[in-house]
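Worked Example 4.2. Consider the chain below.
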Amino acid sequence: MDQNAIGVFDSGFGGLTAVKELNRILPNENIIYFGDTARIPYGTRSRETVLRYAREDVAFLRRHPVKMIIAACGTVSSVLGTNSPVEDIPFTGVLFPAAETACAVTKNGRIGVIGTPATIRSGSYEHAMHTINSDVSVTAMACPLFVHLVEYGYTNRDNKITRLAAEEYLEPIRNAQVDTLILGCTHYPIIRDIIADIMGDDVKLISPGEEAAKFAKRCLEERGMLTDSKEKGRNVYYVSDSVSMFRENAKHFLEDAAHGQVFSSRI
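Applying the procedure from the previous section yields the following C-alpha cells:
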C-alpha cells in the first residue's frame, strides 16, 4: 500500500474533469493538482514550449509526495506520445487510455477526434489508434474556441454561441459517419451535452479524463499501490495565477466548489 498522493497537472482547469473522476472511483486517495493558469492555454503553443512546460509541471509535482502522475492535458499528452517524463513512478497522459477505449467500443471502425490545434497537429491520436487497430478510420478536427468558451462559462446546453461553434466544428466529423468521438481536450466534457445533441444518440463520446482515471486505478491496483485508508481522500490544489479565479472557474469542471486547500505557487 502507498499513502502518497496522485499528482495531476494541466494547463489550467480542464484537468479537474480527471480529478472529478478520480474522486469518484478512488474516493480514498489524496490528490495533488497543479493548474498552470498563468500560462494557459498550451494548445496554441509550439511543441518545444509544450515540452518545456510539461517538464516544469512534473518537476513541481515531484516536490510533493506523489506516487503517480497524470498529465490531464490533451496537448501535453499528444506531444509526449509514449515518452514518459518520469521513470521511478507510474505515469500516464490522457491520450492512450482514451484511444484504447475508442478502439474497443467502435462498431463501424470510424472514430472522430476533436482537440486543441496542437493536439490535432501532432497526429498523436491517429498514431495511437492505428497502433492499436490499423483498420480504424480517424477523422480529426481542431476546435480552438472551445477552451475559451468553457473558461468563460459559456457551457449551458442552450448557449447559442457555443452551439454555433460546435455545429461548425463538428460538421466534418458528422459527415465522416463516425460512431465514436474522442473529446480530446479535458475541457470538452463540460460541453458534452451540446456535442451529444449535435452528434446524435448513436455516437459514443469518450472522455479522456475519465479514461485516465480508470487507467490510474488499474495501474495502482496491479502494483499494490492503492491506499489502505478508509477515510475520504483530500484534494490540494496549486495554481500559478489567481486563487480566486481558480475557485470561480473550478465549479464548472467539478460541478461544485473546489473543496480543499488552494494555493498560488510559482513553478
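The first strand starts at residue 5 and ends at 10. Residues 96-208 form a domain with the Rossmann fold fold (CATH 3.40.50.1860). Compare this with Example 4.1 before moving on.
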